[in-house]
Design goal:
single chain; about 150 residues; alpha+beta; Jelly Rolls; 5-stranded antiparallel sheet; 8 strands; about 30% helix; binds zinc ion
């Protein structure tokens, strides 16, 4: 099962919390156990799984990435967004989260962010949910039919 989520990012560099949207999708698919894979098909955006309880963590991550690849740095890439390509490479473009008991098995403080490094713009997250274990067959057959088997 593959779905695309569209995210309109609200700044040049931002971590957009997409956790509720991913949770809603997993709930709607009614999968008991599986894997939820997220991928952004972009060269200047990424996916981060990290704390979403204290918003200062997202700010610290962006500040530290800016120190590593400053927007005003000297780069060869003529488009002028080399800093965004470097930051996107550092955070990566995908994440895989287990689905357990019908829910994303995120830690208590974890959230899923689309990391924007060259916004604002519309981004796409490709979400693939793979079922690794179904409910036992007998549980999926209604009682009245089970008796006839
Ligand atoms: Zn570029």
């Amino acid at each position: 099962m593959i779905e695309r989520i569209h995210v309109i990012t609200r700044g040049h560099e931002r971590l957009e919390d997409i956790t509720p949207r991913i949770k809603e999708m997993v709930r709607r698919l009614r999968i008991e156990e599986g894997l939820c894979h997220l991928f952004v098909p972009h060269t200047t955006a990424g996916i981060i799984v990290n704390e979403n309880a204290d918003p200062e963590v997202a700010r610290d991550i962006l500040e530290r990435l800016e120190a590593l690849a400053p927007r005003s740095g000297r780069y060869r890439h003529a488009e002028g967004n080399a800093h965004a390509h470097i930051k996107a490479s550092l955070v990566g473009q995908s994440a895989t989260i287990p689905v357990e008991g019908g829910k994303l098995a995120l830690g208590r403080w974890q959230g899923v962010y689309l990391a924007e490094f060259d916004g604002p713009r519309e981004r796409t997250v490709i979400v693939s949910v793979t079922m690794t274990a179904a409910k036992p067959l007998e549980e999926t057959i209604p009682e009245e039919f089970r008796k006839r088997l």
